[in-house]
Design brief:
Number of helices of chain B: 5
Number of strands of chain B: 7
Order of helices and strands of chain B: EHHEEEEHEEHH
Largest interface: A-B, 25 and 24 residues
Oligomer: heterodimer
CATH topology of chain A: Alpha-D-Glucose-1,6-Bisphosphate, Chain A, domain 4
CATH class of chain A: Alpha Beta
Number of helices of chain A: 4
Low-confidence stretches of chain B: 157-161
Largest sheet of chain A: 7 strands, antiparallel
CATH class of chain B: Alpha Beta
CATH architecture of chain A: 2-Layer Sandwich
CATH superfamily of chain A: START domain
Radius of gyration of chain B: 15 Å
CATH architecture of chain B: 2-Layer Sandwich
Helix content of chain A: 25-40%
Distance between the termini of chain B: 32 Å
Low-confidence stretches of chain A: none
Structural class of chain A: alpha+beta
Structural class of chain B: alpha+beta
Number of domains of chain A: 1
Number of strands of chain A: 7
Distance between the termini of chain A: 31 Å
């Protein structure tokens, strides 16, 4: 079956535990995710959603796998834009791997269709969010304060 | 025509001029590129090469186009591993764009053949190099001192004796 995939890898000077917190703690998240945050219990089977500063839900789904602080898989469906929602659920896998004094963070976001508007949208979003996350963990400040459309 | 392409985007707290300097300065490059350096005059038509610490040439080619501090296009052929060299030249485009106090760096590295081993190698290497470059510009030091996935390189080289 045709598939669309976005892959991003970045190396961050931090520990797997601290990076896991940054990826799952809502207050932490708001600082580098342009005011947005995710809500979940972060255990396999628990619901997951992404929430705007005004409380609107942009995406929702569930945690397919969670192995702190190494691996997180989210079944992820967009909710706001009808043409993206109609594509159905995507799968986002986050892998954290210690490397020297750093952590290799790999994000693989896939959708079982080709082309996928959701994967096209996240391909623009992930580099902004992960650049901000790396800067925030290494310097205490983000690189971008506003999201680029 | 079928092709292989690797795309990588990073946002870095710097000015386009600072980033351009970091991408073309031999000494700075050594610090974030694991001891390797590129040598070129960085003008359209000038030769370009990547050189190891022991002066061995890893890749070479030429600058196709250079518009400091906005864009650069490099014709890039691997030289050391015969199988990769045989793939011929790839094209690597670097684009720098100012955005909200930061610079968006976009790298598009492509080869006009499917399942290119050079592009596969580049896909593993660019995130290492750019993660180091971003850390160096933002914090004054790199995130990785040594190549962590030497295994990938070693495997490739071993299979070619």
């Amino acid at each position: 079956m045709a598939r669309s995939t976005f892959v991003y890898v970045t190396y961050i000077r931090t520990t797997p535990e601290r990076l896991w917190s940054a990826l799952t703690d809502r207050e932490f998240m708001k600082q580098y995710w342009f005011g947005m945050h995710c809500e979940s219990e972060w255990t396999a089977g628990s619901p997951w959603k992404m929430v705007l500063p005004d409380g609107g839900i942009t995406d929702s789904g569930e945690i397919a796998e969670a192995e702190p602080p190494r691996r997180l898989v989210i079944r992820w469906q967009h909710q706001m834009r009808p043409e993206l929602k109609a594509e159905g659920p995507s799968l986002c896998t986050m892998e954290l791997e210690p490397s020297d004094a750093a952590v290799k963070l790999s994000i693989t976001h896939t959708m079982e269709r080709e082309p996928s508007k959701l994967i096209a949208a996240v391909s623009g979003g992930w580099p902004q969010i992960l650049s901000n996350l790396k800067s925030f963990l290494e310097t205490g400040a983000v690189a971008l304060k506003e999201v680029r459309k | 025509m079928s092709s292989s392409t690797f795309v990588y985007v990073a946002y870095i707290s710097a000015t386009p001029q600072e980033l351009w300097s970091a991408l073309t300065d031999t000494e700075l490059m050594r610090r974030y590129w694991f001891g390797l350096r590129c040598e070129s005059r960085w003008t359209a038509g000038s030769p370009w090469k990547i050189v190891c610490g022991d002066d061995q040439i890893l890749d070479s080619g030429e600058i196709v186009d250079a518009v400091p501090p906005r864009s650069m296009l490099i014709r890039w052929q691997h030289q050391r591993i015969p199988e990769l060299k045989a793939e011929g030249p790839s094209l690597c485009k670097l684009e720098l764009e100012r955005h909200a106090g930061a610079v968006k760096l976009s790298i598009t590295h492509g080869m006009a053949r499917e399942r290119s081993k050079l592009i596969e190698l580049a896909s593993g290497s660019w995130p290492l190099v750019i993660s180091n470059l971003k850390s160096l510009l933002e914090t004054g030091s790199v995130v990785l001192q040594h190549l962590p996935n030497v295994r990938a390189h070693a495997t490739l080289e071993k299979s070619h004796g």
